[in-house]
Amino acid sequence: MARRFGRRRFLGVAAAGTVLGSSSAPAGTSAGREVRLEFLRPRELKEAKAACGTIFQPLGTIEWHGVHNVLGVDAIKAHALCLHAARQGGGVVAPPLFGGIGGLNQPHTFIMDPEDDVFSVYLRPWLERLCREMARDGFRAIIILTGHYGAAQQMVVRETAVRMSRALAIPVLGTPEYWLALDEGYTGDHAAWGETSLMMHLFPDTVDLSRLDKPPYQGVGGRDPKESSAADGRRIMETIVSRLATLAQKMPAWSPQTLDSFIEAEAALVARQLSAPGGKKQLWTAWRNVATVMRDYGKHLAEGRFEEIKTAVANL
Ligand SMILES: [Zn+2]
């Protein structure tokens, strides 16, 4: 809203996986294998790919996230989740992309494509080119995780992933992070309980709840952020990360039949999201009952139960 595995550790275990510097390192990422693509030398990348051919691409933007959160929440949240998942399940993580479709009409918000622009002229071709280059470099699965999620951003990310899965013949998943934890009650929000809790766990130094006055809070959408806690953030994070890790481990080894079944389910979802507004400017139409209908999406995705996803989509 603008609104486990053939685990193979290699030598050269790297130091911090920090994003904002050591004091703000995502919890639990300060040790372990270096998974950030931009910090790998050729040999380390070759070894990482041999162990697991998945690459993560985190997406976000610069956007107002209330007076209590930093402006880069979406990208740094998605990046941290990907880092945890790669360390747990395998794969490497590309640098986060700051920039996408839409954003709140609030200060300090960079809007590259208009909010409702499902015909995105910047994000879509950029994602396409990233996928093509990742496949050309030998990656065998791609997970695009967007921490920024207006309706059009979500549609374009998933639609591009489906099309690239077909064109490149490797699995490409494009999803907002909250879709992987709908069954944890995390239904996506903006700078409210969910995002703020995640940030309190991942980057505790960045959240200052004392800056919140009384509701309504400027540029916040969802449950009261004053109810946020690092414990809730940790629970949400663990669910998302374990599912991403499972996917990262399994996706490169999917059979052509499994890939087809995955693509069909994701394509059904894209079709439903795009067509539900009936040509009108009501992009959120297919989201009205997402918390109930798609509640088990993350679980089913990680377990490869794509038929069940397809069945659920019909009820969106
Ligand atoms: Zn956000």
Write structural notes for this entry.
The protein is an alpha/beta fold. It has helices at 42-51, 73-89, 123-136, 151-168, 193-202, 230-250, 256-275, 290-293, 297-303, 306-313; strands spanning 54-60, 92-93, 97-98, 141-146, 172-176. Strands 1, 2, 3, 4 and 5 form a 5-stranded parallel sheet that branches. The two termini are 18 Å apart. Bound molecules: zinc ion. Zinc ion binds at residues 65, 73-74, 148, 190, 195. Residues 65, 73-74, 148, 190, 195 line the site of zinc ion.
Structural topology:
Elements: H1 42-51, E1 54-60, H2 73-89, E2 92-93, E3 97-98, H3 123-136, E4 141-146, H4 151-168, E5 172-176, H5 193-202, H6 230-250, H7 256-275, H8 290-293, H9 297-303, H10 306-313
Parallel strand pairs: 1-2, 1-3, 1-4, 4-5
Helix pairs in contact: 2-5, 2-6, 3-4, 4-7, 5-6, 6-9, 7-10
Zinc ion (ZN) binds at residues 65, 73-74, 148, 190, 195.
Quickly describe the structure.
The protein has 316 residues and is α/β, with parallel strands linked by helices. It has one domain (29-254): Creatininase (Rossmann fold), CATH 3.40.50.10310. The protein has helices at 42-51, 73-89, 123-136, 151-168, 193-202, 230-250, 256-275, 290-293, 297-303, 306-313, and strands at 54-60, 92-93, 97-98, 141-146, 172-176.
